[in-house]
Amino acid sequence: MGKFLLISVLIFVSACSTTATDPGNPYGSCATTANKNYFVCKMAANLTVLAGFTEKFIYTNDIYQLIDVVVYPADMYTTTPPIERLPIWRLQKSTILSSVSVKHIELHRDFDFPRNVNIGDIILSNNNLTAFPTNITNRDDLHYIVIQYQKIRALSPNSFTAIMANLKKLSLENIQLEEIEPNTFTQLSHLTHLHLSENHLNVLHSDMFTGLNHLQVLYLFNNQIRAIEPGTFDTMSDTLEYLNLNRNQLKVIEPKTFTPLSRLVTLDLSANSLEILAPDMFPGYLSGLDLRFNEIHTIKPGTFANITDKLQYLALDGNQLTTIEPNIFTQFGNLDKLILRHNRLNTLTPDMFGGQVQHLILNSNQINTIKPGTFANVSAKLKQISLQDNQLEDLEPNTFMELSGLRSLDMMNNYLKVLSSHIFAGLDNLNTLYLDYNQIHTIEPEAFADIKNSLKWLHLKHNELEVIKPNTFTQLPKLEYLIMSENRLKVLAPGMFAGPLMNLWLDANQIHAIKPGTFDKINSKYMFLNGNQLSVIEPNTFKQLSGIRSLNLRKNYFKTLSPDMFAGLDNLKSLFLGNNQIHTIENGTFTQFSGLDTLDLTENNLTVLHLDMFAGLDRLKDLRLEDNPIDTINFGSFGSFSLLQKAFPAADWLNGLSRLPTELNKRRVTYVMGNGIIIT
């Protein structure tokens, strides 16, 4: 087998010279660099060019050289005269230019590419072009042309003077294009992708795309399009699959504008100025329809009648919908996601939703009422409802009765105050419940009774809970994550928690007491009690938590640590006690923590580090003692010099023991070496 030589060439228009050379290289004299696969080459007598290429080998029947070329000035601040041709004419006939890019270099109006080699892709960027470079249109080797950041304000049939049989993709983005004359693209009948985005087009005329009868993808986003004439897309009715009209100025879509597009799969009309949706707007093959950030206030019955079987994604967020007519969304057979966030809906009613929708997103409306039966017509396929950032104050009984397939319910940031008994009836398979940032002060008995066999995540952060009634959470045998941060809890007592509860967040409450037995029936691995008012931990409080890995007690009011405080935490890996008022650590406090690797004692009142204070911490990796008023150190308290280094990782003076007395003296610290006391 022969070889394909793959070479990637990077060309800089520059005034540099080379040093060491490789005369055998066909592209000119080249100097090697630190990377053995990279070369710097001078490739033209009248223009100094630097080139770098890497080599790979692929076997085939013949030897070819595949090259990717990028041309741009090495010095962006030096003006380069317009160039007429690329300085690579010495390439062998067997060379194939996989792609050629010319960036930030002005091109002569007669600029041309080498004719002795095949070129796959051409990319021209920031070349000050005012017309389409016609010299490249009579090539039959091109597959993809990108022309961007130019000043080409108009295209005409003369722009494409020859049939480009193999051209599949044409990108003319950001070229200041204002006008496309009729029949401009008739020579591009094999084109499949056309990009005309970020230009100044304002009307799409019926004869603008004539001849593009194989087009599959059309990008027109970020123009100034305000009108689409009837018949504009007729020439591509059997081929177009993707159409992007995002960020234009469309206010009205004439009936049947898109309906001839029998194969259109995705239509993006987001960020326009549409106000009304009406029947005969959308073709029947659509699976994705993006209508976000318009000004839609009305959806007429029958608007989606043609697309009920195929549509999978419908985005209507960021509009001005206040009501939804009955049955608008009830007929969808395969809808995966319906997004209605950031509208002005205030009441959800029966016949509003139905069909096979799986994800219903209603965030950031003004919803204050969910009428009974609202979800009666929704199938068991509905997996997620998001009602975050609304105005719900209470929920009617049986609101969720028909939602046996729901896995996630999000009602964060509403105004709920009471969770009534059986309020979640019907949610037999609910896995995750978000109730953070409400005003919940009461959870009635049996509030979670109907989701006890499925609920794993319960979020109650930032509410107004002061008391948790016994057995409120113990009826949830599968609960693994309970987040109750930022409430007003004061006392933790037995009967509050049970089950696996791998993660328990109780931080930023007002807890001042934990009664013995509180944690006897849970199996937590991570517990957060930071930001409370604890000053004492009763003996055996954590006795049954042998599986816990991390305990956070920062920002409390502890003053003394004693061995019986942490009895039972035999497998603890991380203990956080920073920002308390700790001034005393009794002997033996940490002896049970043979596996502890992180101990945080920052921002306390420790003044003396005494003998055996850290005894038992044989595997400690991170000891944090910053921001303590330490004035006496007994080195025996650290057991080894390595532990001392962990305690003061930023102290360079620990790198040499000979400097230690001097440095401690500067800090007015009394230091103790072994059992002998030295006072400075």
What is shown here, in short?
The chain is mainly beta and 680 residues long.
Structure write-up:
The chain has 680 residues and is mainly β. It starts with a strand and ends with a strand. The longest helix has 7 residues, at 641-647. The chain is flat. The protein has a 27-stranded mixed beta sheet that branches. A 4-stranded mixed beta sheet has the order 45-47-48-49, with helices on one face. Helices cover 2% and strands 25% of the residues. A hairpin with a 2-residue loop joins strand 48 and strand 49.
The first-to-last residue Cα distance is: 83 Å
Binned strand content? 25-35%
Q: Characterize the overall form.
A: flat
Largest sheet properties: 27 strands, mixed
**Integer average pLDDT:** 83
How many strand units? 49
Weakly predicted, low-confidence segments: 1-28, 35-64, 653-660, 669-680
Q: Radius of gyration from the CA trace?
A: 36 Å
Helicity level: under 10%
Structural class: mainly beta
* Count of individual helical segments: 2
List the helices and strands and how they pair.
Layout: E1 2-13, E2 29-32, E3 39-42, E4 49-52, E5 55-60, E6 64-73, E7 83-85, E8 95-103, E9 107-112, E10 118-125, E11 144-148, E12 154-155, E13 169-171, E14 179-180, E15 193-195, E16 203-204, E17 217-219, E18 227-228, E19 242-244, E20 266-268, E21 276-277, E22 288-290, E23 298-299, E24 313-315, E25 337-339, E26 347-348, E27 359-361, E28 369-370, E29 384-386, E30 408-410, E31 418-419, E32 432-434, E33 442-443, E34 457-459, E35 481-483, E36 491-492, E37 503-505, E38 513-514, E39 526-528, E40 550-552, E41 560-561, E42 574-576, E43 584-585, E44 598-600, E45 608-609, E46 622-624, E47 632-634, H1 641-647, H2 660-666, E48 670-673, E49 676-678
Parallel strand pairs: 1-6, 6-8, 7-9, 8-10, 10-11, 11-13, 12-14, 13-15, 15-17, 16-18, 17-19, 19-20, 20-22, 21-23, 22-24, 24-25, 25-27, 26-28, 27-29, 29-30, 30-32, 31-33, 32-34, 34-35, 35-37, 36-38, 37-39, 39-40, 40-42, 41-43, 42-44, 44-46, 45-47, 47-48
Antiparallel strand pairs: 1-4, 1-5, 2-3, 48-49
